[in-house]
């Protein structure tokens, strides 16, 4: 039996090995013919998806005007209120009384769902994760190509397939949540389309969508972070042993970019603190890099190693309400906590391999993803 891939890039390389990548398209938006389509929002009752006929696809501009819906919600089977919108459905969903998580619930118990057991195959490539102000868990599954929403107890509330996100031919890479609770989703267009960023409104319609410029090398994985103060969006890029970060406003205008000359080798994930500083994990150098909101390098911390504040293939990164930095130390099977200045505080051991994304809940929970599961620590 072949050895399991040990790196996220290796996993993705295997998945994309036989794809032919066409010549790089020129700069600008919409030059590749991959236009977003009307978002026929597919939201499903507590759990399983119902395949529904989407009807004809309607072409819409590459960048819809904010506030103008480009699609609508379909009625959930059995719902007595036709036209009920996704967020209203989310707010009305109750916990399934027949559902039992993989591990017993309790104040001190870790909850795992989406992997082996009753939730098998619901997650196959979980990567980016975020928690909304109402404490719902939003997970990007890049293998299934959808965005899934769970309660903190592990009940799947709904899912958004790629067509509901406006780009049927693209797959989601990462997700961030704005202060207003609206999710922003990074869509990967490889091999033939530009990458895009999409915002979904509280009623399930696309309110903002723009293509990312094709002025940096693109690999199969990118990360995204959102500054909720001003809706500035930070997107990582990496190719081989070079990488960087680009900053955009909510209309898609490029504000600044940093690259290999600013020390980055293979940036993967990003996070933003309350002051607007950006933290980027680099899975090749094993450092976390901190930049200010103008892109100026501030400091780095971590570094290669097996214990304490050292890291081995860091992946997901987030900032909690106290300003502490939480980093998935993937190869060391733990989540490491630092101060904002990069001083080691403590760590939380993980029993899973290939941990990837990390987020914190409004009730003090710590949420971690690996390929096929979500792990919720009630406290950390």
UniProtKB/TrEMBL annotation:
Coiled coil: none annotated. InterPro entries: 6-blade_b-propeller_TolB-like, NHL_repeat, TRIM-NHL_E3_ligases. PROSITE patterns: NHL. Residues 71-81 have a biased composition (Low complexity). NHL repeats lie at residues 298-341. The keyword Transcription regulation does not apply. Keywords: Repeat. It holds the Pfam family NHL. The keyword Repeat applies. Residues 61-81 are annotated as: Disordered. This is SMP-30/Gluconolactonase/LRE-like region domain-containing protein. It comes from Branchiostoma floridae (Florida lancelet). The lineage of its organism: Eukaryota, Metazoa, Chordata, Cephalochordata, Leptocardii.
């Amino acid at each position: 039996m072949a050895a399991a891939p040990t790196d996220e890039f290796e996993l993705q390389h295997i998945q994309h090995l036989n794809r032919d990548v066409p010549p790089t398209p020129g700069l600008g938006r919409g030059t590749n013919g991959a236009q977003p389509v009307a978002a026929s929002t597919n939201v499903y009752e507590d759990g399983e998806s119902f395949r529904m006929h989407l009807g004809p696809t309607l072409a819409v501009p590459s960048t819809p005007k904010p506030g103008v819906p480009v699609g609508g919600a379909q009625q959930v089977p059995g719902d007595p209120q036709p036209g009920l919108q996704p967020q209203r459905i989310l707010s009305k969903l109750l916990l399934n009384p027949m559902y039992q998580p993989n591990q017993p619930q309790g104040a001190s118990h870790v909850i795992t769902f989406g992997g082996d057991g009753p939730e098998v195959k619901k997650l196959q490539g979980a990567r980016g994760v975020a928690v909304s102000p109402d404490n719902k868990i939003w997970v990007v599954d890049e293998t299934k190509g959808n965005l899934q929403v769970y309660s903190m107890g592990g009940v799947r509330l709904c899912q958004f397939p790629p067509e509901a996100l406006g780009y049927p031919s693209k797959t989601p890479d990462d997700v961030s949540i704005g202060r207003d609770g609206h999710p922003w989703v990074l869509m990967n267009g490889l091999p033939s389309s530009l990458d895009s960023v999409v915002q979904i409104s509280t009623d399930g319609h696309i309110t903002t969508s723009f293509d990312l410029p094709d002025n940096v090398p693109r690999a199969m994985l990118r990360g995204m972070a959102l500054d909720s103060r001003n809706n500035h969006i930070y997107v990582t890029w990496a190719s081989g042993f070079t990488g960087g970060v680009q900053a955009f406003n909510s209309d898609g205008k490029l504000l600044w970019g940093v690259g290999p000359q600013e020390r980055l080798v293979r940036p993967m994930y990003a996070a933003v603190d309350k002051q607007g500083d950006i933290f980027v994990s680099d899975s090749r150098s094993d450092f976390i890099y901190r930049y200010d909101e103008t892109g100026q390098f501030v400091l780095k911390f971590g570094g290669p190693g097996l214990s304490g504040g050292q890291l081995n293939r860091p992946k997901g990164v987030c900032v909690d309400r106290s300003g502490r930095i939480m980093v998935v130390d993937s190869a060391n099977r733990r989540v490491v906590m630092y101060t904002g200045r990069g001083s080691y505080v403590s760590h939380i051991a993980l029993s899973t391999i290939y941990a990837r994304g990390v987020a914190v809940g409004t009730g003090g929970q710590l949420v971690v993803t690996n390929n096929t599961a979500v792990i919720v620590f009630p406290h950390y």
